[in-house]
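INTERNAL TRANSFER SHEET
From: sequence group
To: structure group
Subject: Adenosine deaminase

Please process the attached sequence and return the structure record in the designated field. Keep the field labels unchanged so the import script can parse them.
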Amino acid sequence: MVATIRYEDIVKVPKALLHDHLDGGLRPATIVELAAEVGHELPNTDPEALGRWFVEAADSGSLERYLETFAHTVAVMQTAPALRRVARECALDLATDGVVYAEVRFAPEQHLERDLTLDEVVEAVLAGFAEGSALAAEAGTPIRVGTLLTAMRHAARSQEIAELAVRHRDAGVVGFDIAGAEAGFPPTRHLDAFEYLQRENFHFTIHAGEAFGLPSIWQAIQWCGADRLGHGVRIVDDITPGPEPTLGRLAAYVRDKRIPLELCPSSNVQTGAAPSIAEHPIGLLRDLRFRVTVNTDNRLMSGTSMSREMALLVEAFGYGWRELQWFTINAMKSAFIPFDQRLRIIDEVIKPAYAKLLP
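Return from structure group:
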């Protein structure tokens, strides 16, 4: 089975992506051009060399060091035209990789250095996604992009960003998120925002269980009411390995409730959340039938794509088309768009494509 799955074939099959950061997926050439326009100094102005620098700088085993690389991408995303361009190119790049549905997140509060308002930031990004999606459809690679607005967990603007997300919910914003260093900044600091979102019947995910362990996951679910877990990889700390693994109370709850895990294999290895792709908990979690999804996190910093992530799993775990379809359908089931729209993509796009490949 494994020998028959080629990378170029993985690119062609439809994929769904739930965890991708806009400021972590810029084209190196775009960064160079935008940096020149605003006078931002880069580590290297050769696009190819700059791309390598991002991967090497992020490949440190430290989440904090990993996050430092974003200083350069965020610096060039401070004007409406720049945001619009980055979003347009993001949609096109994902579509070219065979992604048919994507939820891309970004933190509006990080794009205010040149006097844009929060609403103007969101409007520029949404316009870019619309342009990119239209161009992708014209090229024969249709994609739907939903936007998640992220609040930084070390800041104090989560309520404001939550209200911003709800304000744009009918224009393409499908959910809310908090991100940033987990240690010392628990999700419970933002309870007001999460309670507001629940009152508004709005979806949200929380970065939890990546750099910090089970308490982060427990708080995200039981205190804050997260619909999904951003990463959530440390849920394995509540699983006793063995011929018949034993689930602790929290792990069992996550599995029983079908809470989606937004796993990002390459990124998890880079930040030290997993020792290697071959030893990534995704294998165990998939075997135990958790609601596992495969994601890119930051395509620039990880030098990756959805197709590459799936190819790495095929190589590491011997997965075939059936497993790749399972991951893809899991993601679509867990998307933040209406149920009937999720079902339509599963039944009309994903299943027919994989049916041609399954024995």
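Handover comment: The CA atoms of residues 197 and 228 lie 14 Å apart. The chain has one domain: 2-137+145-355.
Transfer complete.
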